[in-house]
Amino acid sequence: MSTSNLPSTRWLDAPAHTAWRIAEGQRLLAFATASKLPDGFGSLDAAGLLAPGARAETLITARMTHCFALAHLQGVPGYLAYAEHGVAALRGALQDATYGGWFAHPGGHDDSGKAAYLHAFVALAASSAVMAGAGGAPALLADAVKVLEAHFWSEEEGALREAFSRAWQLPEQYRGANSNMHAVEAFLALADVTGDSLWLQRALRIAERIIHTHAASNGHRVIEHFDALWQPMPHYNQAHPADHFRPYGSTPGHALEWARLLLHLEASLERFGLHAPQWLPDCARALFDTACQQAWSVDDAPGFVYTLDWDDRPVVRARLHWVHAEACAAAAALLQRTGEAHYEQWYRRCWDFIANHFIDHGAGSWHHELDMRNQPAATIWPGKPDLYHAYQALLLPGLPLAPSLASNLAGNVTKR
């Protein structure tokens, strides 16, 4: 691919930028260690403290375990013990010993059920912990794979079912793009850890349904909500537009995240010697370009808004840190794949925005939410509970598109 249209020095190749990314990653990791609890990891507040009476959360524990495993693979001393703590929690109080799968909180017998979104992150954490050599990780991985295949994966649908009651009864009559997007991420990791290309074929089927079929026919705006027959529900949660995981309308941040994942999937399929359809990079470009056109600075202030309605008007105008982290990672992936200066410009623009608005040099880590004037806010995401998006965005630009993140850091980059 031609790179003649790039600036003379790409930030991806600039030693100072690489050093900045590494240093910022170490700062995020140090902040996140305070989230450790006896039975997992919990959410930190804006000052980096656990609230009185804080309890472990499976989602936070899985994401922290994944990140601490990556830190160990990166060569940062001291973090293997944190990854192993997370593995022990996921094999202990957070796991449902009676029915299998994972509670949202330790001993969560009163929790509403078992969600695909949560279990995708457990599988991702287990995959990364295995690559890091964490004790207990192979058993955790085996449990996660067993649950995914027994309950969530639908061969008929080519996607994940969404949720069940605790005893795997009462399936929810809903299908979600968000949980399936994170299943694609987990399946890429599972393919590398297990050597089984079936996981890539499953990831491709998910992407084909949600992106190549639905998003491509909807102006490359990702449809998030479906009924059990995969019929779109465009008005879902219209009365609760700022929902954490199921907001109303389109979520440009997910379009950016999907763009990156499609390129990882293309590269992983090729690495396994499998056919990678041309629509993967084509849709990646269209998703990214559409999200940038529709959601950046649409209300006379820089940054990506959280959600848009189906006429592309802003609904929730908050700026969330994870959206901008995913924008950086997606721009880097597209820059690697295409060599086009367009993506270098977006890569620089998004990192400048993060540095100027999200990075909290006083209390540490990143503000998780800004208001429409780009001032720190806490209406959707109070505190600073999430290391995952920011830390990955700092690691991914320095790595090839395949294999997946933990395998890349472990040096598992030989072609099969």
From TrEMBL:
One GO molecular-function entry: isomerase activity
- Out of the domains of life, which is the source? Bacteria
The keyword Repeat belongs to this UniProt entry's keyword annotation: no
Q: Which UniProt keywords apply?
A: Isomerase
Q: Does the keyword Isomerase apply?
A: yes
Q: Which InterPro entries match?
A: 6-hairpin_glycosidase_sf, 6hp_glycosidase-like_sf, AGE/CE
A Pfam family found in this protein is GlcNAc_2-epim
Gene3D superfamilies attached to this UniProt entry: 1.50.10.10
> Please, one GO biological process term?
carbohydrate metabolic process
Query: What family name appears in the similarity comment?
Result: Belongs to the N-acylglucosamine 2-epimerase family.
The name this protein goes by in its record: Uncharacterized sugar isomerase YihS
User: What organism is the protein native to?
Assistant: Pseudomonas inefficax
Q: Gene name?
A: yihS
